[in-house]
Write a structure and sequence with these properties.
alpha/beta; 5,6-Dimethylbenzimidazole Phosphoribosyltransferase, Chain: A, domain 1; Rossmann fold; four-stranded parallel β-sheet; 6 strands; 46% helix; binds nicotinate mononucleotide; binds 5,6-dimethylbenzimidazole; nicotinate-nucleotide-dimethylbenzimidazole phosphoribosyltransferase activity; Nict_dMeBzImd_PRibTrfase_bact
C-alpha cells in the first residue's frame, strides 16, 4: 500500500520535553553548562516521547544509485565507481564501515539504482532502474519511479526500525549526485546557482563552472515544479536522494531521531520537508560539509550543524562521526547524578554586598 497519501507525522511531545528540561536542571552541574547537549537532550525527548531518550543502537542506511548526467563529465570519477564502492561497503573497507563499527551501528546497503548489476552478501537489492537518464536531455525518471524510490526508502527504514534501531543515519553513494543535489536545491529554493555548487568529489574550478552550465541548462529544459517534490525528483533525480527522503519520513512516523549527513543527505532532507513540513522536527544535522552549497542547504533546513570538520565524503560518514554527541546528550540525562542523589549543594553562591 502506498505510504505517502496516508503519511501522518506525530507532533513533537513538548510536555515530555519540558519534563526533561526540568530534570536537567537537577543534575550535578551549573545550569546550562552542558550547552547544546542540553537542547539536544530536550529535542530527543520531544521526538521519542521518552524523558530518558535512548539513541542506541544507531542504524546507517546507505542508498546507492547512478546519475545519467555523469556522462557530461561533472564528476572527478567515472560512473563505475558507484558499483565498486558498493562492493567496498559489502567488504567492510569504506569509511562508513569503520565509523559504523566505532559507534556500534548496524549498517545496511541498498542498491536502489546502480547502473550495473551488483551483488554480494548483505546487499539489499531494490533497484528501480539502471541509473537515471541524463537530465540535460530528458527527465531523470518517471513520476512513478520517483514515487517508488521514496516508498522503497520508507519501507527499508521501517524494517530497520522494526529490527530495533533507535537513530537513523541516512547515507548515499552515487557518482554525479552533487550535480543532481545542486540542481534540486536551485529548483526548490530559487537561489542563485553559484551559492549552491561545489567541487563534489574533487573537480577543478573550471569544471565547477561547466557543472554550473549543465545545471542551468537542465533547469531551463526540465522546468521542475518547485511546489511538487516528486516532480523535482522525477525531473532531476536521483533514486538514492528519493530513497533517503522516504527513509527519513519513516523515521518521523516512528518517532526515531534522524542524524543528517552532508550535502546530498541535506538535499534529501529538504525534499522530505517539502513532502511534510513537520519532518524537520525529527532531524539533527551531524556536520557541515566542505561542499560549497551545504551551508545554504542547512540554512534552508533551519538547522545548526554539530561539527565542522571539512568532511565531504558522504556515505553517512559525517553523521556517524557526530553520533557520539547525540549519545552524550542521551547519557547525560540517564546516567548523571542529581544534586539530591549525590549530596551536592545546589545553591548559587551569592556575593553579599560589602559593608
Ligand atoms: O556528503 C557530502 O557533503 C559530499 C560532498 C561531495 C561529494 N560527496 C560524495 O561524492 C559523490 C558525488 O560527487 P560527484 O562529484 O560525483 O558529484 C557521492 O558518492 C557523494 O557521496 C559527498
Ligand atoms: C572513492 C569514492 C568514495 C565515495 N564515497 C562516497 N562517495 C564517494 C565517491 C568516491 C569517488
Amino acid at each position: 500500500m502506498p505510504v505517502l497519501p496516508t503519511l501522518s507525522i506525530p507532533a513533537l511531545d513538548l510536555e515530555t520535553g519540558c519534563t526533561t528540561r526540568d530534570y536537567i536542571e537537577t543534575l550535578t552541574k551549573p545550569s546550562g553548562s552542558l550547552g547544546r547537549l542540553e537542547a539536544l537532550a530536550v529535542q530527543l525527548a520531544e521526538i521519542t516521547a521518552d524523558p530518558f531518550p535512548v539513541v542506541t543502537p544507531p542504524g546507517v542506511l546507505v542508498f546507492a544509485a547512478d546519475h545519467g548526467v555523469a556522462v557530461e563529465g561533472v564528476s572527478a570519477f567515472p560512473q563505475e565507481v558507484t558499483a565498486q564502492m558498493v562492493q567496498n561497503f559489502l567488504n567492510g573497507g569504506a569509511a562508513i564501515n569503520v565509523f559504523s563499527n566505532r559507534i556500534g551501528a548496524r549498517l545496511h546497503i541498498v542498491d536502489i539504482g546502480v547502473a550495473s548489476d551488483v551483488d554480494g552478501e548483505g546487499l539489499i537489492r531494490k533497484k528501480i532502474r539502471y541509473g537515471t537518464a541524463n537530465f540535460i536531455q530528458e527527465d531523470a525518471m518517471t513520476h512513478h519511479e520517483a514515487l517508488q524510490a521514496v516508498e522503497t526508502g520508507y519501507k527499508q527504514a521501517e524494517e530497520f526500525i522494526h529490527q530495533g534501531i533507535k537513530t537513523l543515519i541516512p547515507g548515499e553513494m552515487g557518482i554525479g549526485n552533487t550535480t543532481a543535489s545542486s540542481a534540486i536545491l536551485a529548483a526548490i529554493s530559487g537561489k542563485d546557482i553559484s551559492t549552491l555548487i561545489g567541487q563534489g568529489s574533487g573537480i577543478s574550478r573550471e569544471k565547477v563552472l561547466y557543472k554550473r552550465q549543465v545545471i542551468e541548462k537542465a533547469l531551463s529544459e526540465r522546468n521542475p515544479d518547485r511546489s511538487d517534490p516528486i516532480d523535482v525528483l522525477a525531473k532531476l533525480g536521483g533514486l538514492e536522494i528519493a530513497g533517503m527522503a522516504g527513509a527519513m519520513l519513516a523515521a518521523t512516523t516512528n518517532r526515531i531521531p534522524i542524524l543528517i549527513d552532508g550535502f546530498i543527505c541535506t538535499t534529501a532532507a529538504l525534499i522530505a520537508k517539502k513532502i511534510s513540513d513537520r519532518a524537520t522536527d525529527y532531524m539533527m544535522v551531524g556536520h557541515r560539509s566542505a561542499e560549497t552549497g551545504h551551508g545554504t542547504a542547512i540554512q534552508l533546513l533551519e538547522k545548526k550543524p554539530l561539527l565542522d570538520l571539512g568532511l565531504r565524503l558522504g556515505e553517512g560518514s559525517g553523521a556517524a562521526v557526530a553520533f557520539p554527541i547525540l549519545e552524550s546528550a542521551s547519557l547525560m540525562v540517564s546516567e548523571m547524578a542529581t544534586f539530591a542523589s549525590a549530596g551536592v549543594s545546589n545553591q548559587e553562591k551569592r556575593n553579599e554586598p560589602e559593608g
